[in-house]
Amino acid sequence: MHDLLSFDDAYTDGDIDTNRSDGPTLGAIVDQRYSRRQTMVGGVSAMTLAAFGTTLLSGCGSDAEDNTPPTVTAGQNAATTSGKLVSMTATATDAGGSIAGTVWTQVSGPTVTLTNAGTLNASFIAPAVATATPLVFRMTATDNFGATATADSTITVAPATLDFTAVPKSLADVVAVPAGYTVTVLYRLGDPINAATGAYANDGTDSTFSARAGDHHDGMSYFGLLTGASTPDAANSARGLLVMNHENISAAYLHPTGQTLVNNARPEAEALKEIECHGVSVIEVTRGATGGWSYVQNSTLNRRITPNTPMQFNGPLRGSALIRTRYSTDGTMGRGTINNCANGLMPWNTYTTCEENWAGYFRRDTTDNAARTAKDVTSLNRYGITVTTNRTGNNRWSTVTPSDSSSTLYSRWNINVQAGTAADGTGDFRNEANQFGWVVEIDPYLPTSVPRKRTALGRMNHEGCWPSVPVAGRKLAFYMGDDAQNEYLYKFVSNTPWAAADATATDRLAIGDKYLDSGTLYVARFDATGAGVWLPLRFNENGLNASNATYPFADQADVLANVRLAGDSLGATKMDRPEWTAVNPATGEMYLTLTNNSSRTLANTDAANPRYYNDPKGTAAQRGNPNGHIIRLREDGDTSEATSFRWDIYVFGAGSDLNPTNINLSGLDATNDLSSPDGLWFSRSTNPTGQVNPLLWIQTDDGAFTDQTNCMMLAALPGTVGDGAARTIVNLAATDTGTRSQSTFVGKAPGGSLRRFLVGPKECEITGVDSTPDGRALFVNIQHPGEGGTGAAPTSAWPASQAGTTGTSRPRSATIVITKNDGGLVGL
């Protein structure tokens, strides 16, 4: 410390001591400022004692006037795991003055976002790490004189774990989640989506479902919205659009006394209600200041897309004779989308919805075969649109006599060839069924946009259309299951390599044209060696031409409209109901749910579908593969463009009481046993739940296990392809007198890295899942609760029962939001 100096010969303007009072001089103030010790005590603690125990840091110091610089001693360090919310608390004191400011800064380790960094109490989400990693944070306090002191805290972050207690199996009529989580019902069947539509009566009298939430909520994605605008903000976790499918209806609850017939025909009002309950919802949702979620009833972005909504055909079938109808004589347009199950979230901010069990809606009489070519009949039969005496189609919509005699809203469901009409199908609806079974792309941000059916991706019972991880300069792939017993897994590879700038393009459907209208569609063959091959479905290759003995393909449009027949010709592997696909955002591995297969026999098991067994439900036999499994693959070279891959089976569905040697091959126990995996989704890569070792969410649609529990959702940290081993199992014949050995490849037993997170209400399916970008809110759909009841005698009262309401309230499909009570990430 230096004294202040003066010079006798310096300029002395006013340099005269005229103040003789006892007040301190400037020199004395400076001396005092630098001679005392400042004391600061810093600390770090977790939100819960389980993570950090107690206050972790303490300070020490002296008030001695010793002219030494201040010192701060940091205390004990702490440990946590990826995804945890960590709170750091400090205290700062000053012996001779007051604290002017405090700030937390990060000194080392993976960068995190500090909340309230300018206060004594800051927090952050522990980052995703592969191994234990130290993060150092520094608290700096400054007093009114500018003096500073610091204390460092080291938080060591270990890899993510499932840090919740498994929810037990349950037959109760509520959604059960782990302790520390809250369920909020967000968007229910019949909820109005504009200001002009009244509240839902829920007694069967409601109408105008074009302005209400549809039924059977299913696949779903969240799209962030820019605050105060209708444009994308991919990072916004407080305001967004939820886009969801409405797969089907629980007709018993939609009408006062269920469906009715008048002179063997459906009333128009009932049929219109049922049609409009199908399709897609686009709704705005917001998080309030206290963290609660709600949907915005009067948002201008809200929209219902139904089977009556105009659609545009794109890709190789646009203009094809196969899709020409009375409504669209040039084969470029169609009406609506139906039986929408799984979905896809495109890298350019659009939504794809997938048409699944569409074939059942069409009427086709026994006389229709004679009016068609043999080729037509082969195609219709292969897609399950066979002729029967009483085939009037699901819900008999084709029997309606419309109030507007010119309307074809109901006659379109009758695909019989009409005598005296044009041979090319432009005078009737003989080709209407060919207009369904596609992936449909929707721009959720533009309510006036016309959805596009992407025919390059093939026609099937589409379950999901999930893209590969986008890599600049590499072609995108899109993975799709065909949900029926013994059908196939498909992959579409775009002709166009990914350009990162397209992620923020404003003409989003035009970007869809770029990546989804041209490319190669493949079907999968799983070999007994643990390898696999993608077989191209290209016209004039591998027998896919006019010389094909089973079905003479005319062109590429014909191949795509009949991909099942093309897959048959190429020898694709018949799978146990291939449903949802999901891509691990960290590894690029693709997961596929194989829900179950009652037609799997002892003789036709294979390595990828290896089990045949009996899982009795009471006294009733359930043979085949009643509990399903999840298969996964890794593309050779880790590229989406690969034509070969490696595979294994991640988990086998089974009750924990089943034989562990040949049935419960994954060693499931009471915390994670499951049946019929269906919905599947990896957490977003925008937060730690989707990084390094991302969370996988598994949802069930079960019939085999429902004597023990309602359907469920599980969380998993699943590992990688090849982390297990080859295994040979012995399948037992139905007569219990014969056996057949089957080799397969089983992933590492999941153990505690697979855990039941949610159990739904009575008779429901759990399906559809997404989160906000920050991972703090998880959206889940509860489909058809109480599906076995009637309006007079409902078998569930959910969601009214979620709030403890008793009585006979009709059940409603609905979207829920799950949040963690401490504000942390869901699942970790």
Task: Describe what this molecule looks like in 3D.
The protein is globular and about 100 Å long. Mean pLDDT is 91; it is low at 1-21 and 24-75. The protein folds into two domains: 26-158, Immunoglobulins (Immunoglobulin-like, Sandwich); 181-356 and 437-820, no CATH class. By secondary structure, it is mainly beta. The strands form ten sheets. A nine-stranded antiparallel beta sheet has the order 21-22-24-25-26-33-32-29-28. A six-stranded mixed beta sheet has the order 16-15-20-19-18-17, covered by helices on one side. Strands 10, 11, 12, 13 and 14 form a five-stranded antiparallel beta sheet that branches. It is built from eight helices and 42 strands. A hairpin with a 4-residue loop joins β25 and β26. It holds the Pfam family K319L-like_PKD.
Summarize the model shown.
With 828 residues, the chain is mainly beta. 7% of the residues lie in helices and 30% in strands. The protein contains eight helices and 42 strands.
List the helices and strands and how they pair.
Elements: H1 26-35, E1 40-42, E2 45-46, H2 49-52, E3 78-81, E4 85-92, E5 99-108, E6 121-125, E7 133-143, E8 148-158, E9 181-188, E10 217-224, E11 239-246, H3 251-254, H4 268-276, E12 279-287, E13 293-295, E14 303-305, E15 310-314, E16 333-335, E17 340-345, E18 351-355, H5 374-382, E19 439-442, E20 452-454, E21 462-467, E22 475-482, E23 485-487, E24 489-497, H6 508-516, E25 519-526, E26 531-536, H7 556-561, H8 563-570, E27 575-576, E28 578-583, E29 590-594, E30 613-614, E31 623-624, E32 629-635, E33 644-652, E34 677-682, E35 696-700, E36 712-716, E37 725-732, E38 739-746, E39 754-759, E40 765-771, E41 777-783, E42 814-820
